[in-house]
Write a structure and sequence with these properties.
By secondary structure, the protein is of the alpha+beta class. It folds into two domains: 272 residues, no CATH class; 189 residues, no CATH class. It is built from 15 helices and 14 strands. The chain is elongated, with a radius of gyration of 30 Å. Keywords: Membrane, Transmembrane, Transmembrane helix.
Length: 549
Amino acid sequence: MTDGFDFSPGAQIPLTGTDGETGATQALASAAYRDSPVKALVDINDAASVKAPRLSLFEPNLGEAFARAVQVRMLGAARKELVQSFGIEPQTVVEHCLAANRIRQERDARLTIVMGVFGLLFLPGVLLWLGAFQLRRSLATLKAGGNRYGALGGAVLAVAVALAVLLAIKPPFSGFWHQYFRVMMIAPVIGWFWAKRICERTAKDLRDRWSGLVAGTAVGAKIPEAVPRNPNQVRAERLRQSLAKLSAEQGSNVVFYAGPKGILGMGSRWGSWHMAEELIPAEGVTDINPFRSWDVIRAIHDKLRMLERGPLHTGGFPKPSIRHWVVAPIGEGAKKIARPTGPEVDSFSVKDFEIQRICNTQQFGKGNRHYLGIQFTLWDGNLVITLLVTVTVLAHTLRVDVTAHALGPINSLFTDGPPDKEKKVSKPVKFWETKTVQLPLIDSGEVVRLAARAPLTWFPPILDYFGGTLTLPEPFGLRHTWVEKPWQHRFMADDALRAATPVLRAVHSAAIQVMTENGVDTSHFTNRSMVLSGLVQGVEPKKADAYDA
């Protein structure tokens, strides 16, 4: 990634996001278009928080808060580093957040004109109506909390309507001000009808996208503002570079071990198996042919690539992702991560020669560690199974560790479609029968909220001050932040448990083969491998990173 402009062929084509490739990606992306209360995000992750609004009339809904928080956190110039999101395409989610914000900005531009015409010309009346709706929302909050005064919310609007009628019939003063006060409370109502049409049109578009993403249909995110058309569009170029940086960070081969939390982004460790035996020459061999940990790892890598091939035509493993990882330790309560830098790092990834050095030399004491990982992305990205292998040699003991991690499905909050705006009522004559009545997509209070927020959307810090903001958990990653445990899902749990046995056997087979070729007596290793091969068949998930010491 460079700091210059990219005007290569095709750069001027408006950027259109893909459909996300996985169901988990689309489920997360749908949050940008939702209109439910933002508190739902805090309910599924205590580490997330919502700053209480100073005026509830400016409070954002879930889609507005999520889209803005994700855009700032993942594309901001001064943002912290991100945890990889395995099983999804984070760039697709960010693109949908940008697209949702763009749709809302177009709506807010029209609402700002409405507020400019009716809000400035009839400012006293607009302020009275806004005050009435603000008081109504505050009383509704009290009612939800059990306060008896909350029932007065309906009376507030009745008083406002009565005042509008009174001023229309008997306005004070004379001359110009006589006519002004006559329409002062009525003109904002006319503006409200205009604003309602604008809001309903946008709400239908947002809900269609929400429904399409949850249903799995191809809903692209159009973000032409991410494509610079000339050298003067610095903002578009910066956005393009931020998206490129996000993709590079997602492809990093550096992950972070955070104690009981496990490896961030991969889920907690639920199982581990160790084979550690002494390196002694085989019978008839004087000295062992020297070999390195990297030689064993390379053989294991080649063996794991053959897992998708089996002797029977019965399906079996899909093609896994096999990568070399550099694991860096951080504290359990750490609020940020920092990937290594220097000449041995390129685009957030450690180069191959440095990975080999870490594998062979950094096995004890301070420093990062090397792991070979095989990863299966299943259930449309809702289950990510990762098994990590590390080989260490201390004195005359060679140790092969296999650890299992599982990242569960996206929380069900993100998989629900938009609820139908309808209710069932009794028929007037045949009262024992019911009929379904369609409700408007947005009610009067929501129209007022959107119209009140619209002029302030051009000044985000002011809007955040009055309306509150969503604070995302740190260290932040789109995927692991909103997951559920896979063990409540019978088939997901089975998949995670079943993957361990063939991987463990392949790892041991490759390691023993390398030792045999280099003159090592492998009888002890073979015996230990057979014991572990039996134990892994009855393995049960546990908190392998929680030590009782």
